[in-house]
Amino acid sequence: MLTLDLTPEEARVLMQVLEACVSDMRMEISQTDNIRYKAMLKERKAALERVLQVLREQMPLPLAE
């Protein structure tokens, strides 16, 4: 298991980048005809979504102003 020590700002930026990547992958998956390539993209997307889920679970909720 790998552990990262991120500041809240770094975690937010990482989440934004991962969310954009997952969104882009949805489009690429839908436009891909090659079955093997599509399967590989789906596996990568699932891995990114797992990382995003961990980040969401561990991110402190913003304080109300």
Task: Explain what the structure shows.
This protein has 2 helices and no strands. The model has no long low-confidence stretch (mean pLDDT 90). It has 65 residues and is mostly helical. Helix 1 (8-31) packs antiparallel against helix 2. The N and C termini lie far apart (36 Å). It has helices at residues 8-31, 35-58. The radius of gyration is 15 Å and the shape is elongated. It has one domain (8-55). This is 50S ribosomal protein L29. It comes from Thermanaerothrix solaris.
SSE blueprint:
Layout: H1 8-31, H2 35-58
User: Which shape, going by the Cα principal axes?
Assistant: elongated
How many helices? The count is 2
**Secondary-structure element order, as H and E?**
HH
Question: How many structural domains?
Answer: 1
The structure class reads: mainly alpha
Average predicted local confidence, pLDDT: 90
Give the terminus-to-terminus CA distance: 36 Å
- Cα-atom radius of gyration: 15 Å
The total beta strand count reads: 0
β-strand percent reads: under 5%
**Regions with little confidence, pLDDT below 50 for 5+ residues:** none
Major sheet summary line: none
The percent range for helix content is over 70%
